[in-house]
Amino acid sequence: MIGKHMLMIPGPTPVPERVLLAMAKHPIGHRSPEYSEIQAEVTENLKWLHQTEQDVHILAASGTGAMEAGIINFLSPGDRVLCGCNGKFGDRWAEVCEAYGLSVERITAEWGKPLDTEQFRAKLEADTDKTIKAVILTHSETSTGVLNDLETINKHVKAHGALIIVDAVTSLGAVNLPVDELGLDVVASGSQKGYMLPPGLGLVVVSPKAWTAYETAKLPRYYFDLGKYRKATAKNSSPFTPPVNLVLGLQAALQMMREEGLENIFARHQRLTQATRAAVKALGLATFAPDECASTAVTAVAPTTVEAEQIRSTMKKRFDIALAGGQDHLKGKIFRIGHLGFVGDRDILTGISALEATLIELGGDSAQSGAGVEAAAKALNRH
């Protein structure tokens, strides 16, 4: 049926009608007093969401652009950095660092496993000369559904004194991330995830410690020079032309998030995660990431008797539901169910029932009619 497409991928995520209507307004001048009022409200609500006193800067970019800006503004050519790599996006940040001539050391873990916090501790404690300038890692590794232990790694970084630069693209707005309380230096995110917006906005928050590093950092930058954004944001403006209607959508989305409340947002994502994982297991499928480090944004699933791409294809053709596939060497081996942003209990029950029907049709993974929906419903009812 035309117009009934359902996104169950970790980004882009579903967009509320209230946000779509806000974006459908006529554009206004980005140097007008009216826009400045909107920017002021958006900045305050972004600070609330990030749990920070620092301004959050809006870039016309994807999450990758936000992370690149978060890396290049605070480092100099040849600086030694540690990159946590246990998935597609951790690998990407190491590649960005190498592209800018940084000295990169990867701390790796098998895809589907969390980063080993002890490896960070050992590397940082051994660096008595303080040559490590930054530690860069992904909080929620979207490619595998793993939530890395940011809090523990951050403690080791704090004890050393390096900067910590965090990809929070699929964790911001899906899991509690108190930026100031943790003392995180740079946190980057993207609009098409927990913010419930289409792609197009990258967001970056910067600590006072990182701004001090900015003063002596020598990597080239212009459009992504966060110093320009710092000055403009303080005046409720933007250094370059912003995507005005996306900002109007962001205003509406943040209003919705404030109405729901931070604790309720985090509890909802946790509930949906537990329901999805319980349902997947009840259907005889294996979750790719362990329960103890499961992302609240996406669940990666490793089917054994039916090909992952067959499942995705049937879900799309029969039910017009989009699931994400595996990336790089996991292509064809896993599929991923997104459950962040504008997602509720009904969406999970709908998606799981369609997955059940798909497995029955494909004759795989010992699917028993009703088992997944029953497990999801029980998990949802426990909260």
Largest sheet: 7 strands, mixed
CATH class of the largest domain: Alpha Beta
Per CATH, the architecture of the largest domain is: 3-Layer(aba) Sandwich
SS-derived structural category: alpha/beta
Q: Enter the CATH topology name of the largest domain.
A: Aspartate Aminotransferase, domain 2
What fraction, in percent, of the residue positions are helical? 40-55%
Number of strands: 14
Strand order in space, largest sheet: 2-10-9-8-5-3-4
Overall, the morphology is: globular
GO biological process, one term: glycine biosynthetic process, by transamination of glyoxylate
Modified residues (N6-(pyridoxal phosphate)lysine): 193
Protein name: Alanine--glyoxylate aminotransferase family protein
InterPro entries: Aminotrans_V_dom (IPR000192), Aminotrans_V_PyrdxlP_BS (IPR020578), PyrdxlP-dep_Trfase (IPR015424), PyrdxlP-dep_Trfase_major (IPR015421), PyrdxlP-dep_Trfase_small (IPR015422), SP_NH2Trfase/AEP_transaminase (IPR024169)
Topology:
Elements: E1 6-8, H1 17-23, H2 33-50, E2 56-60, H3 63-72, E3 80-85, H4 88-99, E4 103-108, H5 117-126, E5 132-138, E6 140-141, E7 146-147, H6 150-160, E8 163-167, H7 179-182, E9 186-190, E10 201-206, H8 208-214, H9 226-234, H10 244-260, H11 262-282, E11 286-287, E12 298-302, H12 308-319, E13 321-325, E14 335-338, H13 345-362, H14 371-381
Parallel strand pairs: 1-13, 3-4, 3-5, 5-8, 8-9
Antiparallel strand pairs: 2-10, 6-7, 9-10, 11-12, 12-14, 13-14
